[in-house]
Amino acid sequence: MARNPPHCLLLVSYLLKIASSKIQIIMCRLLVITIVITILSFRTASSKGRVKYLPGFHGPLPFYLEIGYVGVGENEDVQLFYYFIRSESNPNTDPLMLWFTGGPGCSSISSLLYEIGPIKFETVDYNGNIPTIILTPNSWTKMASIIFLDIPVGTGFSYARTTRASYSNEIQLSDHAYEFMKKWFESHTEFLSNLFYVGGDSYSGLSVPIISQLISDGNDVGNEPYINLKGYILGNPLTFPEETNYQIRFANGMGLISDELYELLFHTCGGEYRSEYVSPDNIACLRNLELYEKCIDGIELANILESYCGGRIWLTKQPTHKFLSEHQPLSSSLCRILGYELVYNWLNEDIVQEALHIRKGTIKEWIRCNDDLNFTKVVFDVRPYHLNMSNKGYRSLIYSVIEQWRSWKLNGQIAGYTKSHSNMMTFVTVKGGGHTAPEYKPEECFVMFKRWISNQTL
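^ thats the sequence. predicted structure below, dont judge the formating
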């Protein structure tokens, strides 16, 4: 698992042999103790290993899965956990991507198992046994190697060795991610020449552009190693605070509220629909916002076309197992959040954590989305980062925005709409996609990614 300092055991043996007096023996023993402590510290700071078998999957994994920890921050007191899957096509030449899940505080294995990875759970109600894991035909790892990173500290299996190291924000998160990549490349030098992308969805819309710019700026000033950054990918990303005001227009366009209520909201609120920014004296606006909330009550906000299964669980980050213990949703065939319960039970099994080489005692309980992070939000608008990266010629794929664009097709059918700009930015919608589009429309998103990453026209 660990990379020990070279020839350390030979050095220890040599020191003991040359000790011919009590003073020499004492000094050598102290030096031996120092070396052992150094070795143990090295092992804790960074470790990796291949996983060939996973509980719940029949037989050996047909793809290369590596897990590991990389120490970052002061004294490497932040230990970041990652899952790395090599491209199933040609890992020597296929692109490499660093992927983040939203939150903040949602584990990257959510993206691996539910969105863009090569495996998923068989959709059945949990019965107390190890869930069955099956292959998925639409994994993005068919044409790219992907690192799924648990970040910020306190997410998934990532942890802090000190209380001070447990605190984070968007800037520290980005610094840690950049440091992670530089250290990861030190032990994976064979990937340095591969085209490199940063990707993520939801809340990661704030951190991905920042991280991308950090890497770009580091390359500009000659930081080592040089990272072959080519662009970034974002799904339904959080970008700036005022964008939530578009929810009202979307609700009206989808028939969730009447034209009459939409007009009332527009005229009484003046386009500002965030209740915390509405004057308490504007009674008419606040009353109409209450009517709007009643209209969408009972709508599954993650995907309005699906059955209602608790509404805002994906927004609140409430642990799924706690939510399910307090509610009685429909069967797993209608409510996908029951699938989230499977990963909670699976990753808290000792046999699974042993297979993933999780360090014992580093976390009390694995939680899909950790709502108890020591995380302070300090960045709210990343449009300047998008502008900077665009001006520097980096590519970007952003699948979320709605406009009157040309259609793109799959098997002769409209799969969504797209618009490309001369500044290398490509915007795409996925017809029928939810908050995390690959989870709801895996084949369409697979084709979208394949075409874009290969520089094909959508």
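The longest strand covers residues 65-72.
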